[in-house]
Amino acid sequence: MDLFEAAGADDVGVPVARAGTPLAVRMRPATLEEVVGQEHLLETGSPLRRLVEPAETGRRRIAPSSVVLWGPPGTGKTTLAYLVAHGSGRRFTELSAVTAGVKDVREVVEAARRRLVTSGEETVLFIDEVHRFSKSQQDALLPSVENRWVTLVAATTENPSFSVISPLLSRSLLLTLRPLGERDVRTLVERALTDERGLGGALTLAADAENHLVRLAGADARKALTILEAAAGAADAAEEAEIGLEAVERAVDVAAVRYDRDGDQHYDVISAFIKSMRGSDVDAALHYLARMVVAGEDPRFIARRIVIAAAEDVGMADPSALQTAVAAAQAVALIGMPEGRLVLAEAVVHVATAPKSNAAYNGINAAIADVQAGKAGAVPLPLRDAHYAGAKQHGHGQGYRYAHDYPHGIAPQQYAPDELVGKRYYEPTAYGHERDITARLTRIRQILSER
Q: pTM to 2 decimals?
């Protein structure tokens, strides 16, 4: 049975929690004042508050726009959608982005349009996980949003820039929900312990148990209340008046990792992983590696990112880092997981703790920029290929100085095209192996200029 069928609904279709429904549903905020962690969206006159609160008598009502609520799980997106419908008295209709098709969307929109025309009753259409809607399903929403036949409240945990079509985004307000802080989660847990909708003071929660619960829940209010309910059941079964640490541990094994390989968390975590290696924070880099490993990320993808970091961020400051990274990529492909995590960890430690230089990276980018700008120039005659018939009569190869015939293996002659003589692309740093390169390169360039 659907959760909200069991819960029931009020006269405008908003789900109402009944006894026996999950604690997270029973404790869903009934007013904006009970919402925590999203104060930036609830200021006086804000679009969200105007959606929730009915206009004062005698004041002209300005119809609010549809909204897209973007935020992590358990931050209150569904709650805000219910408050929009319940507080304003609009008819509430909910569609599942998993099971609804284009036909379902059109039927809901047509029913909302008829109500608006015949009785003036407005409709709030709530679509959770709107990122799961196909482009055609989202296209079907456009006329209703454009003409305000419905007030769309769409919720998503994924970046709307990637998952919601541009025409729908341009017709809606994008409201970003922030992850709940530890204090916010504690507030919700304490409320659930004492509120009549929750445990009603029947049990208390030990301090160490509360700390563990909050730590397991992360920033997810729903998870926190689900763990609390399970722990309360464990304590009650043991006829204990206090929910202790053991009850919480019995209630939950391990916190689920927030990581969707097809969503923006994938990009956020890999970005943080790369930046941690670049920033030489080996502990943070290993943390993000662990998150990807636990979430089942493709280890070959991780290995490729380490190879790129070794080349881009370590460079010639420690050339062996690239060797380690390439060896790790080959080893992971050979042995697979879970043993591959050890190889990846070694490569991460090497790259993160190595001296850093992006001099080679900057050098090739600058050279490419010059080539794309037309700064190519003719190859000097002595350097041109002289192995084909007729090449010598054009002067190809004439005057070429063989490097090994000169001291230090360096022949003083012009190698670059005329217009790029003296151009410097590679400027080594003073870090790691590049300290040695700097001294040698200075002498090399001096000899080359003595032609």
A: 0.60
